[in-house]
Amino acid sequence: MLDHIVESLVPVAFVILLGFIAGKRRKLSHSDSLLITRLVLNWIFPSLLLAGMASTPRAQLLDFRFILATFIAVMGMYAIAFVIGWYRYRELKEPTLKGLVNGYPDAAFMGIPILQSLFGPDSLYPILVLNVIASLIMIPLTTTLLTVASGKGSGAKAFASSVWEAVRRPLMWAPAIGILVSLFAIKLPSVLIESLNLLGKATPGVSLLCLGLIMSSVKMKLSFDVGENAVLKLLLQPALMVGAALMLSIGGAPTQQMILLCALPSATISGMFANEAGAYRDEAATSILFSTILSIVTFSFAVYLIDGGLGATQSFHVSAGISSRIPEF
Predict the structure, then answer these.
(1) What pLDDT does residue 3 have?
(2) What are phi and psi of 317, to 5 degrees?
(3) What is the largest CA-CA distance in the chain?
(4) What is the DSSP secondary-structure string of 45-81?
(5) Cα angle for residues 294, 296, 299 (degrees, 5° grid)
(6) What is the pLDDT of residues 218-250, one digit of tens each?
(7) Which of 173, 226, 233, 315 falls between 20 and 30 A from 298, CA-CA?
(8) What does the pLDDT look like over 10-46, one tens digit per residue?
(9) pLDDT (0 to 100) of residue 275
(10) CB neighbours of 31 closer than 8 A, spacing ≥ 6?
């Protein structure tokens, strides 16, 4: 068990540390991190998703109970953190950003390499579902609330604009093409799939390096709010996913993968929103860094639970060599 956890997380930590050192020693700059982020989100990650979704079984794509469970875990955590923030700040910007910090796991940068190490290439579907919910609901909602809080425009117009911007991104339409290919049983040329995979396989290493580079520019400013965010994000959100899975009676590898995604630290995009809004900056940036460091311990425990600590009864094989069990939710 310990060997499996070490084999999965140590390479991830090493690449993040490499990016962190490169940033601290000024071998790479903040502008470089922005360029690498655009490369990951607009080119290599969409290629990976398109190829992965095209080969995903149709039945898995139409599992609406899984999608609903993910919505409960992601948007439920957003709502809980928002309410806590509202009672503390009594203003709209801070609770909105607190909701984003705690509701949006770092699936793009950390989720792909970790899940592929544990489960193999078949682990892309949960990442896609999480990305769609975040892109079409969470991000537009956040944009709308921040617009209303600033008093600079219409909330409805901001929501519609944010949805339109999300749909236009390769991160949305590329996997959508892959989903249509799967649903209509269209067989893509093998040379096209190999070409997409060749580009997409760069996603894990490049995204982790970029994450370390981004973290190198963050100054740690611990506070009660930061500690609270760590508990909400790393402990409560995966617990919400477990509860949603039990309530909806779903199980199997995708459910396990989504529980692990919910156990990941906060996504870096929440820090970008805080900077743009001019509020909750230190709390968001420190929460991202602190939860990333702390997740080395909490995520290892989550892997232990998924790998047999949840009272499983039906076994299946994970490509990385973990003999996991499917919880009978």
Answers:
(1) 67
(2) -105, 130
(3) 56
(4) HHHHHHHHHHTS-HHHHT-HHHHHHHHHHHHHHHHHH
(5) 100
(6) 788 889 999 999 999 999 999 999 999 999 999
(7) 315
(8) 888 898 899 999 999 999 987 888 888 888 888 988 8
(9) 76
(10) none
Query: CA-CA distances (angstroms) from residue 212 to 16, 30, 36, 109, 216?
Result: 4, 11, 12, 10, 6
Of residues 170, 191, 188, the one with CA closest to residue 56: 188
Is the predicted pLDDT of residue 286 greater than 60, yes or no?
Answer: yes
pLDDT digits (tens, 9 = 90+) for 85-111: 999 998 899 999 999 999 999 887 788
Q: Across 239-318, where does the E strand assignment appear?
A: 314-317
pLDDT of residue 245: 95
Domain count, the chain: 1
> 297-312 burial by CB neighbour count: b if 16+ within 10 A, else e?
ebbbebbebbbeebeb
The residue segments making up the domain with residue 305 are: 2-326
Please state the pTM of the whole predicted model.
Answer: 0.81
Span 77-90, pLDDT tens digits: 999 999 999 999 98
Type and span of the H or E element at 297: helix 281-304
Tell me the C-alpha distance between 256 and 39, whole Å. 29
111 contacts 127 by C-beta, under 8 angstroms:
yes
Query: Among all chains, which residue has been given the structure tokens 């370390």?
Result: 212
- b/e per residue 74-88 (b: at least 16 CB within 10 A): bbbbbebbbebbbee
Element at 38 (helix H, strand E): helix 30-39
pLDDT-above-90 percentage for the chain: 35
- Burial zone of 137 (CB within 10 Å; 0-12 exposed, 13-18 middle, 19+ buried): middle
Query: Alpha-carbon distance 166 to 164, whole Å?
Result: 5
